[in-house]
Design brief:
By secondary structure, this protein is α/β, with parallel strands linked by helices. 45% of the residues lie in helices and 14% in strands. It has 13 helices and 12 strands. The strands form 3 sheets. A 7-stranded mixed beta sheet has the order 5-4-6-7-8-11-12, sandwiched between helices. It has a 3-stranded parallel beta sheet with strand order 1-2-3, sandwiched between helices. A two-stranded antiparallel sheet has the order 9-10. Helix 6 packs across helix 7 and helix 11 packs across helix 12. The longest helix has 20 residues. It is globular and about 65 Å long. The two termini are 27 Å apart.
């Protein structure tokens, strides 16, 4: 909730807060009111380890998070060793087996991206730039493999670093490869800076950005006009989830701000944890963890949630292709929706 990804963290905390407030207003869980403990890892693995140890020492019953896979790779084992119920928000396959998640995993995102690049954009010369963090490195590797199998191996695959701000050298190499698509797997601000500098240097090809960047930080860093030229893998916004209408109005009333991308998933994650406690017959750690991993057809605001007990991953997690409108909002790409049969929202402004 501080650092370069703070907008995401704050939105997620607010989503969790809304869920907790509603659960408590209805009497709590098994007669117990919930207390939401705020823990800030600043998207840093080392800080995430410190946070996890502190939370375990406080005796927290459950954890919702972390968001960053790089953090989760280092700290989820701490929660698991303590017997804490985990609803993670990580997406890298390296975090499978550490609790459950309501979010898409890299193994679910990469095929959607590959299909969009090959079937819809007809790309044959994809250049990949990726952040070396756990999730973004993993998704780039998987996409490279899928494109290679399809007969169109990437023309270049280049790493960057989250602390990096100047990408001219790597972009010059990309430009020389004459890509028809520049694929960027990095978090919001870094991805936005890459897209902006690529436009300034005249790097050819369509811009396609991975789910990791989805949010206002990417739009701000890329600047509006550049952001609008990019397609994105991602998840529907709160306004585009048909089950989240009440959530949107409640969020705006409580926080005097529009909901972000990932708060819907923390809202559902808190609900999932609460329902698992009820299914376990009370506040019993082992039974609650088992109930989480055997969740079937829970109705959430992000859609129905079923957990694969073998991996803890969400079955049929929502992954879509998005554009960005002139107001900076993520909207489901109509061409992708038509090609896949995905139902578009009918309300104005969505």
């Amino acid at each position: 909730m501080t650092g370069p990804q703070s907008a995401t963290g704050v939105d997620m905390y607010r989503g969790a807060q809304l869920a907790m407030d509603q659960i408590n207003a209805a009497g709590g869980v098994d007669g117990v009111k919930l207390l939401l403990v705020r823990a800030d890892d600043a998207a840093l693995p080392g800080t995430g380890v410190t946070v996890a140890k502190h939370m375990v020492q406080q005796g927290v019953f459950g954890v919702v998070g972390p968001f960053n896979s790089g953090v989760g790779v280092d700290n989820l084992s701490i929660y698991r060793s303590a017997g804490t119920a985990i609803v993670r928000l990580t997406s890298a396959h390296q975090t499978q087996g550490f609790g459950v998640t309501t979010q898409p995993m890299d193994v679910q995102v990469a095929p959607v991206e590959a299909k969009e690049l090959t079937d819809q954009l007809h790309a044959t010369r994809v250049a990949i730039i990726y952040d070396t963090s756990a999730y973004t490195a993993s998704i780039a590797t998987q996409l490279k493999g899928l494109l290679t199998v399809a007969g169109h191996a990437p023309v270049t695959v280049a790493p960057v670093y989250e602390s990096q701000t100047n990408f001219n050298t790597v972009l010059a190499t990309v430009k020389e490869a004459h890509p028809d698509v520049l694929y960027i797997a990095a978090y919001g601000t870094v991805a936005g800076q890459i897209a902006k500098q690529a436009a300034q240097l005249g790097v050819g090809g369509r811009c396609f950005v991975d789910l990791a960047a989805q949010g206002p930080d990417f739009v701000t860093a890329a600047t509006g006009p550049v952001a609008q030229t990019c397609l994105n893998s991602g998840v529907p916004s709160a306004q585009q989830f048909t089950g989240a209408t009440a959530y949107v109005s409640q969020y705006q009333a409580a926080f005097h701000a529009a909901p972000g991308t990932w708060g819907t998933f923390t809202y559902d994650s808190v609900e999932l944890l609460a329902k698992a406690v009820t299914a376990a017959g009370g506040w019993k750690q082992t039974a609650t963890r088992a109930a989480l991993s055997h969740t079937v057809n829970m109705t959430g605001i992000t859609g129905e949630i079923t957990i694969d007990p073998g991996t803890g991953n969400r079955v049929d997690a929502p992954v879509v292709v998005l554009g960005i409108d002139p107001a900076g909002n993520y909207v489901i790409d109509p061409t992708w929706a038509q090609a896949t049969g995905f139902p578009l929202p009918t309300s104005s402004g969505q």
